[in-house]
């Protein structure tokens, strides 16, 4: 059947589209004819896709774990102390920053946020580190999300806290209503969140007053101010006006602060190490694909020589190989992304998030197609030099 199709293609006269269509059909039939080679080549692409996408997904997950407070804080603008590179306990600002922000035209809501490192005492002895986050329960900014138990409104009560659900056993078997000690003061469990685990200790939420009391923080100090801009106001104009009024602080949009945190993490040792690991995975994946496709073309040299002997031109053979490369890349990408999604679901936990973003899903097939075509075209130099008579030797 392949020989007949090749003969018809060699004898065909017509538009370029007609030859492309006939070449594509012939290439696909040849591709699946040798099932062992077909499966081997596809598995090579699948392995490369899984390796690269899983590493990129883990890097994205680690970064997302440390930008999640910005991403879910609900604020259009963040007012932060100068020198802030991460959203974590650190420098503090006077509450006058909050009052100035509230008096700025275009600001609909301005809410304080306080953060401090602490620990919760276990009943049997010892303690577990936590990161206390104090927010205004009457404002929709900076509070808990992914709530799996409890009512956020309960945090209006002094001494009420939301803990991380995945750490309940480590903290002595926490349940709703459980009483523990934090900084020598009694607190009551009002609810649980899930998955709010940055690089450091899990987030634990309470009201601003509760967290200040637990941390021994003066009432006139705070870490950040979260701003919701009025519906008809321009975010950039409000940002510029706030920056003019607050020369001792820095005003970021949520996207700008997200980017600053990501840049900082990538520049840190952890970011460098994980980024290097991801880069190696990508290189290994690309090499696997390149070698797989290169070998696939070389393994078919005799068949390609036969096609040349039947009258196909070098251009026809180039189109045939390109079609095969694209088909293998698309098939391998779809299977690889499907396996990655399955693995991501298996290893998903509060501590580990693997994020396969829509951008990664959309970019993978064309990137793999380009790589497969490039590797195939390298092998095509051998094809172009093929002597059709070599098939008879």
Condensed summary:
By secondary structure, the protein is α+β, with helices and mostly antiparallel strands.
Characterise this structure.
It is a single chain. The protein is built from eleven helices and twelve strands. With 393 residues, the protein is an alpha+beta fold. It has two domains: 2-65 and 270-392, no CATH class; 83-247, no CATH class. Strands 1, 3, 4, 5, 6, 7, 8, 9, 11 and 12 form a ten-stranded mixed beta sheet that branches. Strands 2-10 form a two-stranded antiparallel sheet. The two termini are 23 Å apart. Mean pLDDT is 84; it is low at 9-13.
List the SSEs and their pairings.
Layout: H1 2-11, H2 16-33, H3 35-72, E1 77-81, E2 93-94, H4 96-102, E3 107-121, E4 127-135, E5 147-150, E6 160-164, E7 179-182, E8 185-193, E9 203-207, H5 208-215, E10 221-222, E11 224-229, H6 235-245, E12 249-253, H7 254-267, H8 269-299, H9 301-309, H10 314-347, H11 358-384
Helix pairs in contact: 1-2, 2-10, 3-7, 3-8, 3-10, 7-8, 8-11, 10-11
